[in-house]
UniProtKB/TrEMBL annotation:
This is Dihydroorotate dehydrogenase catalytic domain-containing protein. It comes from the Eukaryota. The keyword Flavoprotein applies. One of its GO terms (biological process) is pyrimidine nucleotide biosynthetic process. PANTHER family: DIHYDROOROTATE DEHYDROGENASE (FUMARATE), DIHYDROOROTATE DEHYDROGENASE (QUINONE), MITOCHONDRIAL-RELATED. Its cofactor is FMN. Signal peptide: none annotated. Keywords: Flavoprotein, FMN, Oxidoreductase, Pyrimidine biosynthesis. The lineage of its organism: Eukaryota, Sar, Stramenopiles, Ochrophyta, Bacillariophyta. GO terms for molecular function: dihydroorotate dehydrogenase activity. Residues 48-71 are annotated as: Disordered. Residues 4-311 form the Dihydroorotate dehydrogenase catalytic domain. It comes from Cyclotella atomus. Pathway: Pyrimidine metabolism; UMP biosynthesis via de novo pathway. The keyword Flavoprotein applies.
């Protein structure tokens, strides 16, 4: 029996695959569809203090082959009060008892402190409110005039220091806190970011790596202009193109973070193999953003059954059987992989040659039939004797 369950920051999830904050998470109607799927959790859209409409359209773009997407949404959302309202939460969850988490992305530190205060007040006032965790987004690349906090280490440290000094994190925290991080590309940056996160390990339950790769640019070569309107076209890159950067970030973060901080892998996950690879790199759970955006919430059901199939084939019963167990490169491993590829290829070639053989024997049969018809006709008209 294959078990996809996991936990992040002590919150149990029935499956290790769930939605990233962003696409299809703005309203309770959209989130209810996630709750009805096999997603292990429902994570709401990043909220600001007040509702806002976001950047001018067009603000999203998908490459034709589905390998890359860009967005410059600019945080359109219904405001924090909506996402922590008991009506929103009950409309989202319905009968489901899966965890519901909120995401915050304040435009200033004061905004983030204010939103965390609102969340704890709501939970104190009504203990039946089901907010299982809060993800603090330090990585939105699309706010005009605002740098990505996770790239400004002094600012990031100040934010974490002040956030974790709030009364809701004193003693035993009121809710688990996750931090959404931008991608890093250089070992000293990974080390610096992880050392800051580790300083606040008593309050940080998980780190979600990665947000989109900021300031990418897609160009409409016919019109000779950017495909996206805001910020001169510079926007967050996502989709399969970012998976390799995301895997590296998950692996580096898992190596550098204190083991009490879980790592959630996000970036370019589109199938069960992608989720499997994230877990091999050390992810305790996997979030899906762009694929959820383009395919809809049925992607969670598909990916869960694909991951179950991979685990069954490999003889793994739970994700702990392979989590963080990426092996070192070896000649034996390469040989194993080569022979697996050859076996797949020869099955494929077998298929092709059977088909080819079939075509050849059909041609022979047709030729024989023509010959028989020709002989019969010749016989009928006494042509044989000429
Ligand atoms: O709303 C956005 O433009 C946005 C956000 Br908050 C984010 O965290 N990441 C992203 O790619 N877009």
């Amino acid at each position: 029996m294959v078990d996809l369950s996991t936990s992040i920051g002590g919150v149990p999830l029935s499956t290790c695959i769930y939605n990233a904050s962003g696409p299809r998470t703005g309203s309770s109607a959209a989130m209810a569809k996630i709750a009805a799927s096999r997603s292990g959790c429902v994570l709401a859209k990043s909220a600001t203090v007040s509702s806002q409409t976001g950047n001018d359209q067009p603000r999203t773009w998908h490459e034709e082959n589905g390998k890359a997407s860009l967005n410059s949404e600019g945080l359109p959302n219904n405001g924090i009060d909506y996402y922590i309202d008991s009506k929103t939460i009950s409309e989202t969850l319905g009968d489901s008892n899966k965890p519901y988490m909120v995401s915050i992305s304040g435009k200033t530190l004061v905004d983030n402190l204010l939103m965390l205060g609102k969340i704890s007040n709501v939970m104190k006032a009504d203990p039946s409110i089901k907010i299982a965790g809060v993800e603090l987004n330090l990585a939105c690349p699309n706010i005009v005039g605002k740098p990505t906090i996770g790239y400004d280490f002094d600012q990031m440290e100040d934010v974490l220091k002040q956030v974790t000094s709030l009364p809701c994190f004193k003693g035993s925290a009121m809710f688990p806190l996750g931090i959404k991080m931008p991608p890093y590309f250089d070992r000293p940056h990974f080390e610096h970011a992880a050392s800051i996160l580790n300083k606040y390990k008593s309050c940080i339950s998980y780190v979600a790596s990665i947000n989109t790769i900021g300031n990418a640019l897609a160009i409409d070569s016919v019109a000779e202009m950017p495909c996206i309107r805001a910020k001169g076209g510079f926007a967050g890159l996502s989709g399969p193109a970012v998976k390799y950067t995301a895997l590296a970030n998950v692996k580096q973060m898992r190596e550098l973070l204190d083991e009490s901080i879980d790592v959630v892998g996000v970036g370019g996950v589109a199938n069960g193999i992608d989720a499997f690879e994230m877990i091999l790199c050390g992810a305790s759970a996997v979030q899906v953003g762009t694929c959820h955006w383009t395919e809809g919430p049925s992607c969670f059901d598909r990916m869960c059954s694909e991951l179950e199939g991979i685990m069954r084939e490999k003889g793994y019963n739970s994700i702990d059987d392979f989590r963080g167990k990426l092996k070192e490169w070896s000649k034996e491993g390469a040989a194993l992989s080569r022979s697996a590829k050859l076996a797949t290829k020869s099955i494929g070639d077998g298929g092709v040659s059977t088909a080819k053989q079939g075509t050849d024997s059909n041609s022979i049969l047709i030729a024989v039939l023509f010959a028989v018809i020709a002989i019969l006709l010749a016989d009928k008209f006494n042509l044989m004797e000429l």
